[in-house]
Predict the structure.
Amino acid sequence: MSERAPAPAGPTAARPGWFRRRRPLLAVAVAFVIAVVLAYVATPKGGASYAPYDPESPDPDGTRALVQVLEEHGVEVEIVRSSRALDDAEIEADTTVFVTGTDALGEETASRLRERTDDAADLILAEPAPYVSAMLGIPYAVAQTPETLEAGCADPRWEGLSIQADAVTAYDAGSCFPHADGAVLAPADGLTIWGAPQVLTNDQILRADNAAVALRLLGESDHLVWYVPSLDDLAPDESHSPSSLLPRWIGPALWLLLFAVIAFAVAHGRRLGPLAVEPLPVHVRAGETTRSLGRLYRRAGDRAHAATTLRHAARTRLARRLRLGRDATREAVVRAVAHRTGRPELEVAALLTDAPIENDQDLITLANQLAALEEEVRHP
């Protein structure tokens, strides 16, 4: 059987180009770049980046509107952004100190804050971070609520007022605006904890009685020192908050990247369509398989394995010819073949079981002898 020479590869058999092979990876990279650019464009410009509840921020989570209203009501608002600036501020008996961004407070800066505000009329912390609460010994429990909270306390300042915010923090030692197992407003060892800073923000100040509560909370004194701690004030051994070190656009960029990957996966999934099962177009003949196995055995030089395969195949055919069944043992096949051909059992056993094979000539001789034995069984 002659073998057909392989046809020369045409233009359609050429390997796909570099761009086509890497098109999915390039699409993901382009989507990521677009997401980062869109996030950067969406980031407010103007040279300033504000943290939540910043008194100079016009963002929805800023508090510039509250500061302007306080100043219109005669309250002098002094904004300090470092512990050194806090040391230089005039804090007297008629001064209220309000602290936002408490996650930037360390043990040393918190201790300096308490010492510096000993003579102040009140020190108010806006939703102190958990480790700050633990440092100050303030038990707390976080609670989410979109509902309106009534004052519910005997303090005349809050009589008849209510607040509403997307989220509040309730403290076990709280006294006013109760929620869950605590209250939003809580006195604690010479200071006041305010667990609803969202009430003060630009986008929520007009809900319920938020504006009135904010004015009464921060406008009791003629002088308000609004302290925004700085990470630069932390001692060398005090850890920084990882989230505070990231740029503001990283969150929107990650969300856009996620949406881009999902859209890319959906688009490619729709284009590929359902799987189709097709029969293989190649049919291998039994003779070709036998010759291929023979070449492999010859190349490996494993004559013993080849001889074992020849004997096993011969015993199987002889047992079928003699109708001995599939479970017939070697001894049963040897006895039946000897009885059918008249050969001695030792000769048949040596041929079908353990005749030694030393070289290729012995293997060829074994194959011829097995073929002759099968012929004798067919035509005794």
Q: What stands out?
A: The radius of gyration is 44 Å.
